[in-house]
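Fresh eyes needed here. I'd like your take on this protein's tokenised backbone:
***
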Amino acid sequence: MQLSRPDGYELDDDTARLDLDLVHTWLSTDAYWALGRPRPVLDAAVAGSDNYGIYTAEGTQAAFCRVVTDRATFGWLCDVYVDRAHRGRGLGRWMVAALRDHYTKPGFRRLLLATNDAHGVYAAVGFGPLLTPERWMELSFETVPELTAPATVESAASSDDPSSASKGVRAAS
């Protein structure tokens, strides 16, 4: 996907064009949801996502986002970031509207996102609260301490506890 605006900004889905050093700086130092995110985590996230950048007429990257998707039924829009020097020009809204249109196709049922402070940007292009929040559940590895501990796989034969055969995985101490 390549789209351009009359003011010279271009939206592009070419992952090779992304300035990942710049994206990492933006997210790990200025994005509340990704503060301190290590570069290898960003690299893995980019590898598993559809990625989008906005670029100036000179080719400098001005914004980034990604969509985690199966490309058939579901997508999660995340890591939406517009460089502070380029804010106030409608770039975030333009990018999200373009992605909404791109993923609107037969069979694609839902595009989700989460935000703490940009509800107006997303509402302007059609996003709203979950229609059926009672159907949704979350497993947050940040709030369940035993799930954040490294796990080890132990052989059931090496344990004196017969119930360990059905467990197979134990938290390392």
About this structure: Residues 80 and 150 are 30 Å apart (CA to CA). Residues 138-173 form one domain. The chain has a mean pLDDT of 87. Strands lie at 2-4, 10-12, 50-55, 61-69, 74-82, 110-112, 151-153, 169-171.
